[in-house]
Q: What sequence folds into this?
């Protein structure tokens, strides 16, 4: 019974700090970090500066001209990673509606880092720029 209570307490504490809307993006971000570490030998540390590297990776992928469908999962991971950087910098939180996930920063603004990653792939966005705008940190 004590173990069940401790588990329930842990789950409750996690839920209070990270809403359930965060579960998927947090996992996508962690997958992107692992993939970059293992495949590209890049270490991502959830710092705003690390987003410069992610933008460069997206740019390199774009140069190969793959269809969006072929890279959308990777872009989702990069966007979620950028979102986690913003969450950790601002204390913001993930929100979800259906399959869409976005961030709300403490100032009430809403951000869509996954869509920003897709825009970066199209040559019209930047995850580092998004973070800079959301946090004021370069």
A:
């Amino acid at each position: 019974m004590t173990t069940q209570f401790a588990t329930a307490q842990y789950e409750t504490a996690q839920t209070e700090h990270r809403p359930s809307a965060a579960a998927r993006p947090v996992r996508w971000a962690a997958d992107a970090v692992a993939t970059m570490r293992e495949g590209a030998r890049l270490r991502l540390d959830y710092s705003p500066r690390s987003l410069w590297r992610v933008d460069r990776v997206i740019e390199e992928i774009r140069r190969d001209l793959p269809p969006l469908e072929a890279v959308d999962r990777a872009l989702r991971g990069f966007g979620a990673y950028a979102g986690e950087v913003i969450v950790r910098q601002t204390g913001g939180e993930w929100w979800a509606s259906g399959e869409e996930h976005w961030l709300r920063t403490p100032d009430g603004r809403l951000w869509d880092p996954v869509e920003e990653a897709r825009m970066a792939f199209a040559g019209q966005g930047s995850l580092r720029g998004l973070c800079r705008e959301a946090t004021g940190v370069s």
In short: Strands lie at 93-97, 100-104, 110-111. Residues 68-90 form the longest helix (23 residues). Helices lie at 2-17, 23-39, 50-63, 68-90, 113-121, 127-135. The CA atoms of residues 67 and 121 lie 10 Å apart.
